[in-house]
Structures are given as structure tokens and as C-alpha cells.
Amino acid sequence: MKIVHFSDTHLGFSEYNKLDPETGINQREQDFYNSWNNIIHQIIEKKPDMVLHAGDLFHTTRPSNRAIAVAFEGIRKISDAGIPFVIVAGNHSTPKIRATGSIFEAISLFTNVNAAYQGRYQRFEICSVDIHCVPHCSLTEELEQAFHDIVIRSDAKQNVLLTHGAWAGSKNYSMGEFNEQHIPNPELKLNMQFDYIALGHYHKHITIADHIIYCGSPERTSFNEAVNTTGYMWLDLDAKKFEHIELPSRKMIKLPPLDCTEFTVAEIYLALEKLSTPELEDALVSLDLKNIQHDSFIKLDWREIDRLFKQVFHLEKTFSHIERGGTTVTSSSFDSLTVEFERYIDRLSLTDLDGEWLKKTGLHYLSEELEE
User: Fold this and answer.
1) Which of 19, 84, 290, 367: CA 20 to 30 A from 207?
2) What φ, ψ does residue 276 adopt, rounded to 5°?
């Protein structure tokens, strides 16, 4: 029994006001579509017996038409190939109000596709293997009930648990998100045994135990994930061999902090020039300038810093400066006006307004002003 386990594809994720030259859409959004399509291609090529997706198919509960189209095209290819596909909803894809409906209602209509998304336990039997699904549950009581409802059948050849959340153990697997749920170890708490536990939510490939694994994500969503490899799991359930397959993704690099205590402005530029290497080509790069003296700080031309790193896809700058007298150190991070505007809109809780329209319109007028 060969299985592909992947997760946290976050289709529709969008950041930075840069467009893909071929598709004309946000480049970071396209990066996530490219990673999804790469996995779909490998699934069709390798022809596993089953595919498991451990949650956060989309980045939001109300994905754009484009994100839905990309997802449906990939799922259709798996369905047409006759490969069973099982998916659970993650916290990013679960509406706060269940009455508003879910995109997974449409996904469930595909042939060979089983989706668990209603905040309750569901079991799907595929090729004599029971797939026990616990999707994201909005309430802790729902999550506890879902695990309580798991039944291990005596005539099941093998048992796989597919779930999404922060594994509750000796180490912290939290993403720091307000609506995430903590997953208890059912093998300890409920005295159950699974052949494999497929986890989603944590964006790093982690083997908690031989058969309890986070597959990680196929793309990175923040600089906290800069050191993470990206990819999916290839499982041989009969042989109990579980292999992480790495996939290419956009480079994300955190440069070592630069202590500017003794540096003049010219010396800061010189040090940055040495840090700006060809390796950074088309990468997401984080730059941290520490302890900039007050006189140097007010003379720094941030546009010159951008020019020094013109080969990168995006440069995220963080700095701290020492005020006159040396008594206060102020830390800040900032970006271009367009990027900061996008992030501001993303932080708003919009109910009556279309966030994507507001973002697009605002960026249009900001770009016109900046060009003038």
C-alpha cells in the first residue's frame, strides 16, 4: 500500500506587490500554485494507491475563484487517475460560522474523493485500510468528542489517522495561531494503535515517532520557516517505510544580523555589499541591522539598501537604532508602502467589504502616486 501524505498547501496565499510575468498574478500566489501543481504531477507519475491531505488546502475560508480553480484542476487529475483522495479541513479552511457553508461541500462531489470538514470524526474504508479523519474543530469539546468517537474495527487490515493541529507532547508544535487546536496522542489517551498518523498544520517535516509524522508544507509562509525543507511524505504502509520527498520552492534566506555599533553610513553600505551575493538571486531575504548609531540612522538611504540587493525577490528589513545619549534602543521592522498596505488590509476583520478588491484598488492608487 503506497500513500502520498501532504498538507498545508495554502492555495491563495498572496504577499508582496509583485506579479508573475507569465500569468500576471501575484508572484507569491503563483509560487504556491506551482508547488501544488508539482505535487499533483508527481502523484500522477508515481501512481500511489491513495493520497492523503492533512489540512489547510486553502489559505482562507473563502478562497478566490482562481485558488478554487487551481485546487479543483489538481483534484480532478487525481480523481480521473482513479486514485482515492482523502482530505481533512484545517483551521485556515474552516469557517467560523458553519451555517455559511464550506468549499469542501463541492470538493466532496468529485469521484474518488472523501472530505472530512464538519467538525466531527469520519472514517473512510479504502482498499481494506481505514482512514480515521479528525478535521479542525472550532470548539475543544468537538475535538474531544471526535477523538472519543474513533472506532478501530477488528477486520480493518490497517489503520491510519489523518488530522490537523498542534500535536500535544513534550515539544511545542504550535504555529502560534489563535484558532489552532492541540491534538492529544490517541494511542496514549485512548489506548489505540495506528499504523500511521498523518499530521498537518506544522510547516516543518517532523518525525514525532516512527509512525507519527508532520509532512511539512510545500512552500514557506514566513521567515520563521526559512530553514525548513519543503515537500511531502511517500509511504509504504506494508513495509512501514516512510520517506520525506523534498520539493523545490522559492528560497527564503535569513542573513546573519549585522552589528552596526561602530559603523558609519559608508561602512554600513560596504558591509551590506559584501552580504549581497549571487546566492540571493530571486530569494526572499531577511536583513537585520542592529545598534545603528543615531547620526548614521538618520542619514541612511533605505532605497540605497534596496539597490544593493536588487537581485533578490523581496528584502525584508529589520533594524534597531541607538538614540542620542545611548540610553534607548528602539527596534522596528518595515517594508515598502505597498507591502505595508497589503499587510494592513490582511489584518482587518472585514465582513461587509471585499478585502481583495480593497487591496487591489488601494495598490492601484498607491502605485500611481509612487510613480509620480
Assistant:
1) 84
2) -85, 95
